[in-house]
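By convention, each integer encodes one residue's backbone shape. The lines below illustrate.
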Amino acid sequence: MKRKEDALFKRITDFVATALRSPSSASNETETSSFFEQQDERFAAEPFPTEIKTIDYKLENERDLSKLKYLLDLSPERQAELSPNQRQWLIHLQGRLLLESSKWEEALALWQPLQAQNLELELQAYLASDIAFAYFCLGRFTPALEQCQTALIAYRGLKDYRGEAQALNNLGVLYARMEKWGDALDFHRKSLEIRRKLNDRQGEAISLLNIGNLHYLLGKWSAATKEYEDSLSIFQAIDDPVGKNNTTMCLARLYQSQGDWLKAFSHYQAGLVYLQSLNKIEEQ
């Protein structure tokens, strides 16, 4: 990551120096285009325009599962003495460990027999969300969609509105990946409505970002710009460096697509600053 940052920073400074030497020359436009063409490989690694992180399964589950993580620390003898319900939660947690290690197939193999059992509604919701995430990472969007719908029903049964908003958001992400733009926009707007009622500022910013991505894909530049700017404003207000970086990069790509090189450059440069701040946080 650091090496890529250094290379990107050097190209930015070289670009600025060239622009300052000949701001109005015809060759400057060519050099500007060349600069952004050089970014293609660097930014192709970024998940754009609809990010995998927008599934965000851990947002709800980590908070609620923390009280159960003691199950993982029990000896095999103690685990054998668990109640059927505790055993089910333990299997779910074991799958989460596989998920965190990107072992999608192994997690699914552990969870699928569990899902066939008689589970309490809360576990049904969390398990379906995690299974959807595993399928999503494997590029299997149809079964992921089915699991998100299962999670949505369970969250509504629990009257868990944050979980409901998360499931709606996830359905929007999946429909976007399947290029069903109308359905994707509808689910993201429903998620946004709930998150605003809950005053979930981070969730609201994520929903706005996803709606902006849909407008971008459909070539609705003005609408995309508004959603991105609204999203960025919230991320800045809550000081979310990941959100600030992601939204700034989306704005940069938008301006690049429109041929507005100066605004694109400005946002790529700002994105680099956010990226560097993220690395400093990770190093602490």
Remarks:
- The CA atoms of residues 18 and 24 lie 11 Å apart.
- The longest helix spans residues 261-283.
- The chain has 14 helices and no strands.
- The chain has two domains: 1-45+213-284, 58-198.
